[in-house]
Amino acid sequence: MTTTLVTGASGFVGSHVARQLVAAGNEVRVLARPGSNLRALDGVPVERVEGDLREAASLPRAMRGIQRVFHVAADYRLWAADPNEIYRSNVEGTRSLLAAAREAGVERIVYTSTVATIAVPTHDAALPNENTSATLPQMIGHYKRSKFLAEQEAIQAAAAGVPVVIVNPTAPVGPGDWKPTPTGRIIVDFLNGKMPAYVDTGLNVVAVEDVAAGHLLAAEKGRIGERYILGGRNMTLKEIFDVLAKIAGRPAPRMKMPHAVALAASYADQWFSRLVGREPQIPVEGVKMSRHRMFVASDKAERELGYHAGPVEAALQRAVRWYQENGYIRNRAPGRKAAHAVAA
To answer: How confident is the model at residue 200, as a pLDDT?
Structure first.
C-alpha cells in the first residue's frame, strides 16, 4: 500500500486531497505544525506528524517511508504585517521540502502552484495556458510573487532529476473552506449583504473536489516538470454574483464600481486598519489584481490527465450550503431555503 505525505492538509484544497487519497485506499500522513487545527479532516484516518516547512530539520522525519508527496501547503494571504513570512513559507519552505523529498528517494511529488503564475495579461487573442511565459514583475503582490518563485524552485528541481509535477488550480469553491480563502470571503461577504457593488473583473471558478481529483490524476499520469491548470469555468464577478443570487435568494449587486474608486477605498481601509491594529478588510493587492480578468484554458489537463470539471453552479451551491450550516452567515434561514430549493 502506498504511503503518501500531504502538506497543507488542514487547509481547503489540502484537506480535500487527503480525503480523496484515503478514499482511494492510501495510507496518508499529514505534516502539521504543533497546535494546528485539523478539523477539516474530522473523521478521516490520517497519521499526523508535527513539522514546519520553515524548519528544514523537521522534514526528514516526515519523509520516512513515503512514496509520494502532495505539497499543497501555502501561506495564502493578500496582506501580511510581515511579508517575509509569506516568502519563508512559500519559497524557502518549498525548497526545503523538495530537498528532503529528494534525499528520501520519494517516487513522485505533486507541487500545488497557482493559476496566478500563468493568468497574466498577454497580447495574444488566445487564453493563457501552460505555455504562457510570465515574469516576476508581472506578479502583483507578495503572495503571487512568492508562488512564482516557489514554482521556479519546483521547475528547477524537476530539471535536476526530482520527480516533480506541477498543478495550477484556479479559484476553488465548495465545502470545507474554514478560513475562508479570499475567494470564499467574496462568497461569504455576498451572503452577508456586504457586496453593494462589483468591479469589472473575472475568475476561473472550479469545484474544490475537482481540483483535488486533479491532484491525484497528476500523481498518476502527469509528466515530470510539466504544469497542469486545474480549472473550471471562466466567469466575470457579475456572473458569479448572479449565480449566487439565484442560489441564496438574495439580490445581486447592480452597480459597477470603477477600479479607481475601489482602489481608493482599499487604501483608506489599509490606513484605518493600521491605526486600529487589525487586518484590512479590502486588501490593496486584491483590488490591484482585479484589474485583470484571470481567464485561462485548462484543456491540457483534460487531454493528458483525464481531468474533468463539473458544473460550477453545483459547486457554488455546495459552498453556500456549507457556509450557511457552519455559522458564516448572519441571517441563514432565507439562504438555506433557497439553496435547497435550487437543488430540488
So the answer is: 80
Identify the weakest region by mean pLDDT among 75-79, 217-221, 243-247, 266-270: 266-270
Specify whether the CB–CB gap between 122 and 108 falls below 8 A. Answer: no
Q: What are the structural domain ranges in the chain?
A: 3-172+207-232+295-310
Query: Are 306 and 216 a contacting pair, CB within 8 Å?
Result: no
Whether the CB-CB separation of 158 and 102 falls below 8 Å is answered with: no
Helix, strand, or coil (residue 136): helix
Q: What is the model's pTM?
A: 0.87
Within 8 A by CB and 6+ apart from 261, the residues are none
b/e burial code for range 210-243 (CB count within 10 A of at least 16 → b)? bbbbbbbbbbeebeebbbbbbbbbbbbbbbbbeb
Cell of 341: 430549493
Q: Is 34 exposed, middle or buried (0-12, 13-18, 19+ CB in 10 A)?
A: exposed
Q: Which of 108, 99, 98 is nearest to 2 (CA)?
A: 108
Fold entry, domain 3-172+207-232+295-310 = Rossmann fold (3.40.50)
